[in-house]
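Because discrete structure vocabularies remain unfamiliar, we turn briefly to a single example record, giving the amino acid sequence and backbone structure tokens:
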Amino acid sequence: MNVPIQPGLLRIFRYFTVVAMGYYAVVAAFSAIQGGVGAIYTQMQLFLNLLINLGLLAYLSWDWLRTRLKRWYLPVALLVATVVPIFSNLFYLAEPTARNLSLVIVRSWLLFPVLVVPLVLIAWQYGFRMALAFTIVTAIVELGVLFPVLGEVDFATLPILGLPFIRAFAFGTVAQIVAHLIETQQAQSKALLKANYSLSRQAETLEQLTLSRERNRLARELHDTLAHTLSGQAVNLEAIKLSIPAEQTETLAMLDQALEATRSGLRETRRALKDLRSQPLEDLGLALAIRNLAKDAASRAAFELTLNIPETIPHLPTQVEQCAFRIAQESLENIVSHAQASRVRLNLTVESGRLELQISDNGLGVDLDHLLLEDRLGLQGMQERSAEVGGLFDVSSQPGQGLAIRFYVEVHDDPDLDL
């Protein structure tokens, strides 16, 4: 029963207690006006139910009790709303007219509107099985109340003993309808939530694609204008420098400064263009982006490449994908620049909620103690990247025996909203 209370259920429950109090008050007033033998017992029964519903209204309006009782708060209220009306019929045993069969039938059916609301609330909150259990238990309990009243089973009393079964059939039907409606509503809510999530993902993808195209457009325009202009300027300055006599040292020095400034501006422009262009992760995804990185490194350094990368991997958090990509990029650049390796192995796996990246080579290797002090290979940066996403980064190497890095982090696929 440790289920969050459905929205609106307590409000309906409180409304029911108010209506029930009005119901019992009207019936009690009618009984008092009608009078007759046994009216006092009927009024006692009705007055008891009136007081119980008043107390139930106070209980359902007291948030402090809800906080203290937690999971038992609603079951206690439903139990009181169910048990008290049934056992209040024990007043039949004290009433002289208890064997008036028509009165027994009337009072038995008086329970129907009183019990059907708790039945609906139980089906709403806990489903059909709990509502069916409620139906069976209430039928058994009422039979236990009727047997002492009737005393024997014969053709006259058999229809009365069948009343709990008839009401149980009606209750079961109502419970199944309510449970079906609730299940349908919940399924529709899940479908709507999934649709909203899918739309948000599509909108995010469209936004990223739009930004990527805009960056590429700006990059092309800058390349065709600023980069070309600076490149042509550098060529012109080189030509001017060749045409000036060597003895004009001051002029040559000024030209060298202008040429260096132009070349520096061109390098910065190219770097900015590279950063401005859409990132491989956005265009290709993690698996293909790392695969292309490795193949490009192998073509530049002429080493034998062994790849173990799945064709597709689950969508991962952006920070984790960026971290894995940058670590792979830095490691492969180190191999190309320093390792002099002939064989490189790269493994990328995402299994059982863990992403793992392993890159090893058979190159020169390093002394890790000195390497960590100098940090020539950017290991400190890779470790910091790993820590930012909650991952771990290991490196192992010995001189002449190659170098291996390992990055792994616990991840979770994007939820399929399995609510």
Remarks:
- The chain is about 70% helix and 10% strand.
- The first helix runs from residue 9 to 34.
